[in-house]
Design a protein that fits this description.
InterPro entries: dsRBD_dom, RLC_Component. Residues 1-34 are annotated as: Disordered. The protein has 325 residues and is α+β, with helices and mostly antiparallel strands. Among the domains are: 60-128 and 145-233, 2-Layer Sandwich (Double Stranded RNA Binding Domain), CATH 3.30.160; 249-315, Double Stranded RNA Binding Domain, CATH 3.30.160.20. Helix content is 39%, strand content 13%. It has helices spanning 2-15, 19-26, 53-61, 67-74, 110-123, 147-163, 185-192, 206-216, 221-233, 254-261, 299-315; strands at residues 80-84, 92-98, 101-107, 268-273, 279-287, 290-296. Helix 10 crosses helix 11 (299-315). The longest helix has 17 residues, at 147-163. Mean pLDDT is 75; it is low at 170-204 and 220-227.
């Protein structure tokens, strides 16, 4: 019996393949993938990096677009309704309904009002961040915020700011709003969409406000301290004036130079009707005990003329900056 068992064991060992032999047999050249290139010796040829290729791809997908174009991408064929005709002392009012919610914009022209209404609607597309997945598990939630569209609109606004000479944070160009909480952020955005004279009937959207706040993250310590001080004092937080006039002040936008040197100034604005019932603006401001005035067919031009005279009288800066037509 022992002899038979030994013989059977030897036969089983002979029938079982050797692992090393299996590895040697399987060590055959792998099949080349269709997109791979090899040299004469069969070595893989690595693809050369094309300088600027990544930048070209980004530029292809992210182009500056205004609010109307961006909203049309998100909601093709959206319809704008004129709710208020403009005229003397009254702005145009336009509304747009998206996903059952109505957003309104106002402006000195119907086109501006439509742009403002579209921007108010775009804000509603910002959704809360997707929660991080548990380690080892895939997240089943989809990020529904249209980042490419928002990036296109952000570039459009940024380039327009640069074109108009608004460079840097420029917090001093508009009065601070103490007590603006994340819950009121949507209303704050809607109020500022069309500039200081904008009215809005669109109710604040707490969901969008909270989503935006989550993406912005925790403000820097200095920002928190400044906001708390402004809230406690119930007065706008004013930036410190620059210690000296910028070296390139003559080439900068006069309004920007003026606000850097004298932050927190408040303009007095008066709107009248000129020739052919066209609006005409007068602005004035008292700086260091001196009264400065400016006028123009729009508020931007009036402030430009005022600031140009003010920086020359106060700081000896003769501006050569020209407003875009």
């Amino acid at each position: 019996m022992a002899v038979r068992r030994g013989t059977a064991a030897r036969q089983m060992q002979q029938q079982m393949p050797d692992p090393m032999e299996q590895m040697m047999e399987s060590d055959e050249p792998t099949r080349k993938r269709p997109w791979e290139k090899v040299d004469a010796e069969g070595n893989k040829i690595k693809r050369k990096k094309v300088p600027g290729a990544k930048n070209i791809r980004i530029r292809k997908h992210v182009q500056p677009k205004n609010a109307l174009s961006c909203l049309n991408e998100l909601v093709p064929g959206v319809v704008y309704n004129t709710e208020q005709e403009g005229g003397v002392g009254q702005q145009f009012g336009v509304s747009v309904t998206v996903e059952g919610k109505t957003f309104r914009g106002f402006g000195s022209s119907k086109q501006i009002a439509r742009q403002n209404a579209a921007e108010a609607a775009i804000i509603s597309f910002v959704k809360p961040p997707v929660p991080k997945a548990v380690p080892g598990e895939e997240s089943k939630m989809e990020d529904k915020t249209p980042w490419a569209t928002l990036a296109s609109f952000a570039m459009y606004k940024l380039f327009n700011d640069w074109k108009d000479g608004r460079i840097g944070t420029c917090h001093t160009q508009t009065p601070a709003f103490p007590g603006v909480s994340p819950q009121n952020l949507q209303g704050y955005f809607n109020q500022m969409v069309g500039g200081p004279q904008t009215m809005t009937a669109s109710p604040p959207n707490a969901a969008s406000s909270n989503a935006i706040s989550q993406y912005l993250g925790t403000p820097a310590a200095g920002v928190i301290k400044s906001a708390e001080s402004a809230k406690n004092a119930n007065t706008p937080a004013v930036a410190k004036p620059a210690k000296q006039v910028p070296d390139n002040a003559s080439a900068m936008h006069p309004v920007m130079v003026l606000h850097q040197m004298r932050p927190g100034i408040q303009y007095n604005t008066n709107k009248t009707t000129g020739e052919e019932n066209r609006p005409y603006f007068y602005v004035s401001v008292n700086i260091d005990g001196q009264e400065f005035t400016g006028e123009g067919p729009n508020l931007k031009k009036a402030k430009f003329n005022l600031a140009r005279d003010a920086i020359y009288a106060l700081f000896g800066v003769e501006s050569c900056f020209e407003l875009p037509a």
